[in-house]
Amino acid sequence: MTQTGEAENTPQTGVERQQRRKPGLERLLATADELLYAEGIQQTGVQRILEQSNVARGTLYGNFGGKDDLIAAYLQRRHTHTLAAVTTAIEHAHSDDPADVFDALLDVGESRSQQGSFRGCAFALAVAEMPAADGPAAHWARTHKTAIKALLKQALTGRVAVPERTAESLMVLYDGALLSAALRPGEDSFEAARAAGRLLITTALLPPDPAPGS
Amino acid sequence: MTQTGEAENTPQTGVERQQRRKPGLERLLATADELLYAEGIQQTGVQRILEQSNVARGTLYGNFGGKDDLIAAYLQRRHTHTLAAVTTAIEHAHSDDPADVFDALLDVGESRSQQGSFRGCAFALAVAEMPAADGPAAHWARTHKTAIKALLKQALTGRVAVPERTAESLMVLYDGALLSAALRPGEDSFEAARAAGRLLITTALLPPDPAPGS
DNA sequence: CTTTAAGTAGACCGACTGTTCTAGTGAGGA
DNA sequence: TCCTCACTAGAACAGTCGGTCTACTTAAAG
Lengths: 214, 214
Description:
Chains A, B: GO terms for molecular function: DNA binding. Chains A, B: Residues 1-23 are annotated as: Disordered. The structure is a homodimer. By secondary structure, chain A is mainly alpha-helical. Chain A has 2 domains: 12-63, Arc Repressor Mutant, subunit A, CATH 1.10.10; 67-204, Tetracycline Repressor, domain 2. Chain A has helices at 12-39, 46-53, 57-63, 67-92, 99-113, 122-129, 136-157, 164-183, 189-204. In chain A, helix 5 (99-113) runs antiparallel to helix 9. The longest helix of chain A is centred in the N-terminal third of the chain and has 28 residues, at 12-39. The model of chain A is unreliable at 1-21 and 208-214 (pLDDT under 50). The interface between A and B is large, with 49 and 49 residues. The structure holds a DNA duplex.
C-alpha cells in the first residue's frame, strides 16, 4: 500500500496531507491544551473539548486512539513548547552574571503565573490526576524536569562549575516557586526563589576571592 | 427535643454517642484518607472506599452529605495531623542552631517521602484535581501552607530575626522538595533543600561578622 | 463523473458514577 | 419486652462518561 510508487510526481502527498489535516487537528490540540490544563484532565470531558474546538467526534477518534492518546499528545506538546520557551529565555540572557541564567528561568514561570488560567506546573498537575507510576504523566514529568535541570546546569556550567547538589537546589526552588504561586497566590514566591537562588549561586559557585584552582 | 432534660444522670449520652459512632466512622475516614491520597480523589470511587473499609453505603451518607463532604473531612484531617506532626518535630528540635528548625520540617517531609504511597503534598494533589479557586481544596491548601509558614517563622523568630522574604524562600524550598521528591524520585531533593535552607539561614539571618558594606 | 479521503453531525451503547431508598440486624437503655 | 439507633446489604435510579457507528458533506485527483 505504501510503496505502489505511482504518485511520485505529486510530492505534496505525504507532507501536504498532514498540512491539510492540520487546521482541524491544530484546533483540537490547542483547545485540548487549554482545557486539560485549566480545568483538569479528568474533569474535562471529551465532549467539551470537541464543542469548544468545533471539531467532530470522529475527527478525534480518527487522529487519536482515544482520550488517553490525546492526553499524551497534550503532555508532549507542553513539554516541547515549555522547553523551547525556557531555552530561548536562557540563551537570551547572555550576561556574565550566572545568576541571570536562573533569573531567566524563573521569569518564564513568573510570566506564566500572571496569566489568569495559571494553576502551576502542568506536569505536576497531570501526575496528581494520573497516579500510575509507569503512566504517561509520570513519564513526561520526569522527562521534562530532567531536561530543564540539564538545560540549567549546562547554561551555568558555561560560566562556573556547578556541583550536582546546587543544581538540584535550584530545581527545588524552581518547582517550589511554581507550586507556591499556585497554592498561595500573591505571596511573591518567585522573588523569594530568585533571592535564594542568587545567594546560592554567588556563594556556592563564585567564592569572592577565586581559589587557585578556578 | 434536645432539652427535654431527663437523661442528665447519664452524662455519656452526648459524648458516648459519638464514641460509639467512632469505630465505623473512623474506619471510613482512615481508608478514605489512604485511598484519596494514594489513588487520587476523582479516581477513587465511593464504592471502593466502602468495600475497603467494610462500611455500608448508608453509613457514609448518614454521616456525610456526600462524597464532597467526605473529601472535605479528608482534607481537614490531613491538615490537623500534618500540622501536629510538624509542630512536635519543630518543638523537639530545641537546639541553638536555627537551621535545625528548618531541618526538622524537612525531616517530616522526607520521612513521608520514604513511604511507598508517597505522591507529594496532599493539598497540592487535591488542588490539582479540584481546580475551583473557591472550593475546599484551594481553601485547605491555603490554610495549611499558611499555617506551616507561620509555624516555621515563629520557631525561627524565637532564635533570630526573620525577614518575610527569607521565610517565603524557605517555604518555597519546602514545597519544592516535596514536589521534586514526587516527580523525580531518587534525586535527594530534601538534602538539596536542606543545604540551600542552611545557607539561607546562616547568611541571611546570622551574618558571621556584620561588615559595613555588605 | 468517479473515486478517495477527511471532516461533520448526531444518534447510540455499555460501563460506570454518586445517590437514594428499603428491609433487616444487633446491641443497649427504659 | 419494647424501643431506639447505628449499622449492614443490596437493589434501583438518573446522569455522565468514553467510545462506536452511520449518513452526509466537501474537495482534491484520476
